[in-house]
Structures are given as C-alpha cells and as structure tokens.
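Progress note, project year one: complex with magnesium ion.
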Amino acid sequence: MTPVIQINPAHPEAQLIEQAAAIIRDGGLVAFPTETVYGLGADAMNEPAVARIFVAKGRPADNPLIVHVSDRRMLDQVAREISEQAEALIEAYWPGPLTLVLKRRPEVAPPVSAGLPTVAARMPNNAVALALIHAAHTAVAAPSANRSGRPSPTTAAHVLDDLGGRVEMILDGGATNIGIESTVLDMTGRVPMILRPGWITEAQVAAVTGAVTRAASLEALRRSPGTRYRHYSPRARVVLVEHDAAASLEAICKEYLKTATVGFIGHTPSAIKDANFQTIILHADAADYASNIYAALREMDERGATVIIIEGISDAGAGLAVMDRLRRAASEIVGA
Ligand code: TXA
Ligand code: MG
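Model obtained:
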C-alpha cells in the first residue's frame, strides 16, 4: 500500500522532502499538497515517469499536464520566449494559482504537452511543494491527484482513496487552502486568454496585462450542458441550481426526494425535513465554496446520496471558477 507521510506544512522536514525527491528523480510518482489541490508529481523531463501519471489517473493522453517549478530560473528549462507580459504576471502572482501556457522547450517530455507546441507552468504557493521541486532538481509535471473524472483532492485521504497502490508516496500536508485548481492563461496569442477560470480572476489578470479574453467554450458550456465532457464528478448524479434559477430550491428538492436519496450542498438551509435528506451548508461566498466543494461531493457519496442538489452562487469574481467546476460536474442544470 502507498505510504502516507505526515509532513509539517509550514516547515517541511528536510529528510522527508529528500525521500520524496529521490522518488521523483528515480522516475516515480509522489502526490503532494499545493495551495489549490493535491498534485500527482513526476519528473517533467522523464518520459516514462510522465507516462505513468496518465496510467495512474486513467487520464486521456490528449489532456496535457501542468509543470510546476520552484523558482523563476527553472521556468527557462521548460519554456522559451517568455514575453514581458508573462514576466509581469509572474512578478505579480507567483508563487500562486496562475498557470501560464507558454512555448515549450524540446527537453520537456512530449506526453506532458499531449503533442502541443506549448507547455503550461506554474509556481505553487505551498512550502511542501516548493521544497519538493527544489530538492528534486527538476520541474515536476503534476495534474490534480484524483482518478480522471473524479472531484479533485483537497486532502491526502482523498488522494489515498483514488490512487492508493498506484503511486509511491503521498505527502500529507493537511487540507489545501484554496480548494479549486489554478487559473490557466494562454500567453501564446496577442491577447492573454483564460482557458480555465481559477482563483486568480479575469480582473486580476487584466490589472497587469490590460486586455484579456476568455475561451468561448466557457459560455458554450452554460448554454449546452449536455454535450460537454463530464468532470469533477462524484458517483451520485449532480443537479446544479443556478443562483438565479426561476424554480424554487425547495420544490426541486421535494421533487427529487420522491425517487432518490438526496444530498443538498448549499447556503440556504432547506425547510425540508426528511430522513433521506442529507445537508452540507456553506457560506454563500466563493472562498467557502472553493475550499469545501470537492470534499462535500465526496462526503455525499459516502453518505449514500444518489442525487446531489447543489445551490449555485454568483459568477462574480472567483465565483466564476467555482461555478465552472460545478457546471462541469452537473448532469442537469436548473437555470433562470
Ligand atoms: O491548481 C492546479 O492547477 C492543480 C495543481 C496540482 O497545480 N493542477 C491541475 O492539473 O489542476 P490538471 O491536470 O488537473 O489540469 C490541467 C489543466 C487542464 O485543463 C489542461 O487541459 C490544461 O491545464 N493544460 C495543460 N497544459 C496545457 C497546454 N499546453 N495548453 C493548454 N492547456 C493546458
Ligand atoms: Mg484535474
């Protein structure tokens, strides 16, 4: 079974970091905390090691990975032609939850980029992650440490549930503080483009770069929820009620209760009292939703919910990133 190693999140023990770094250098897999979610790391320059990430996660080979660096100089080993705009974003937001898509260097193992001429890179704002990458002396490719399609892990226990027996080591640095994945920003075009919304908002990017655009698929997602690729999903069926939905939450819950064991995740404590009705109540803000939503989805599975009704929040600020994940997790979206 995979060892789960408790490590001090603020002052990681050097000897534990060295053990984990040796696994990375030898082509193995180590799961580690970042400020967003847990990552599943391998040496980004080692093709067989990177290939193992895809196998362990059951991840489609056409979905590229994010490369993690511990200092600005390490970025030059994986990316090239870094623009002034990109440098300004790095200065403003690294270490932090902002991933930049840049031109890749040929030394990066090709499966990292899934055949693309680019590489996605970020510097995580987490002492364990930074110490591990630094000690490994190599950039570390790391997708979220969940089985493909499952909610991202925000604790070591989530990682163990999904990947136990499939990785060499899990570093347990406690629960992650942000709870949803980084913003992915494509810097290869004339105007930076948000490919995945995250904790760093569009306004925060624009404050540095002036202009910023959004990949059209974000809008398309809301319009055609049936056609997109399923993601971030618990076993139960997820019904997302948008914050501006016309139908009442209570009426929707009552309807599902006729045929399902219903779990409710939201900020309005429901009036419904029923033995088959499980509730997890959050504060109606992006920060509380972000840090709890993935754990809540997994928890509802454990409680035996067959349908999870989620009360949405506004798209304002980082709310967009939370709602992006929830819209992808949902089988059904109740809108305005
Ligand atoms: O916060 C995070 O970003 C976490 C932690 C572990 O750092 N990582 C993470 O990785 O969320 P993953 O693999 O679950 O998501 C990577 C995202 C995917 O949407 C992928 O398509 C995109 O980054 N991506 C990676 N390389 C890319 C590239 N070269 N061009 C465009 N998108 C890329
Ligand atoms: Mg992921």
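The domain at 4-221 is CATH 3.90.870.10 (DHBP synthase).
The pocket of threonylcarbamoyladenylate (ligand 1) is lined by residues 34, 36-37, 39, 63-66, 97, 99, 101, 113, 116, 118-120, 124, 142-144, 181-182, 184, 195-196 (CB under 6 Å).
No further modelling is planned for this target in the current period.
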